[in-house]
Write a structure and sequence with these properties.
Rossmann fold; 2 domains; 5-stranded parallel beta sheet; 14% strand; globular; 4-stranded parallel beta sheet; 310 residues
Amino acid sequence: MVAVADSLKGRSFTRVADWSRDELVEVLDLADELKRLQHAGEEHHLLPGRTLGMIFQKPSTRTRVSFEVGIYQLGGSGLYLSAGDLQLGRGETIKDTAHVLSRYLDAIMIRTFEQSDVEELAGHASIPVINGLTDSSHPCQALADVMTIRERFGRFDGLKVVYLGDGNNVCASLMVACAKLGLDFVAATPPGYAPEEEAVRIAREAGGNVELTNDPKAAVEGADVLFTDVWTSMGQDAERERRLTDLAGYGIDADLVARAKESAIVLHCLPAHYGEEITEDVLYGPHSVVWDQAENRLHAQKALMALVIR
C-alpha cells in the first residue's frame, strides 16, 4: 500500500495561494502514484469508510464524476448534495450547515459562486473543505493542469505557459500554481478581460514570472503550453454576444499552435465551444493532451483527498 504522510491531514483546499510549493508537489507526487496504481488495476483504499459530501450550486460533469469516482476508488463513498435539496437553499446559514455536516461527513467539496462562501464554510467546519469551483477560483483544475504539464515534460523549470482568452477563475488559479512551481506564465487577453489584480499580485509575490499582454500571436512565440477556457462561463449568458465580439482573435487554432514550439501541448479545462476559444481540429490534434488533462482531475483530486481527510 502506498504511504501517505499526515502533515496535511485536516487541511482545507480553498485556494492555490494558501498552499506552498512543497505542499503542491506532495499532492502531485501522490497523484502520479495513484494514477499508476489505477492503471495497473491495483487497489489503493486509503480512505476506507470515509464519506465525502459534495455540495453543488453549479452544474458539473468532470467535478462531480471525478470526485464521486475518486472517493469510491479510495474505499469511501460520495454523497451528492444539490443546494436546492439542502436547507442551505432555504436560508440556513453557511455556519450552521458547516457545523451540522461536520458531524456527519469526513470532508466537504463545494462548487458554488462566491469564494467568500467557501472560505466561510471552511472557517466553521471541523473537517476539510475542498473548493470544486467558484467564480474567482478553480484550484482543483489547476492541480490537474500542472500534473499534466509535468507528466508530459518531466519538469516545471524553464517552461512557458500561455493562457489565451478570458482571464477568469481558471486563469487565476493556474497562474498562481505556475508561479509557485516555477513556470513562466503569460496571460493574453483583450482589454477588460485581464485576470484579477489580486491573483496577479499573489503570483508575482510568490516569485512567479507573470506577463500580461493583449497580443495573442506574440504571446505564443516560444510557448511550451497553450491553454484556454470557454469565453462565456456559467452565469454570463446575457453577455455572450458581446464576449464573442471582444474575444475574437484569441481562440486557439492551427495557425496559433504553429507559432508555438513544435513540442508544445494544448490544454483546455472543458467543456469546449468549437469555433470560439478553440477549434475542433486542434482539440483532437497531435498537440492536444486535453483528455489526459481531464483524466488527471480524478488522480489529482484523489491525492488531495487522501492527504487531507483524516
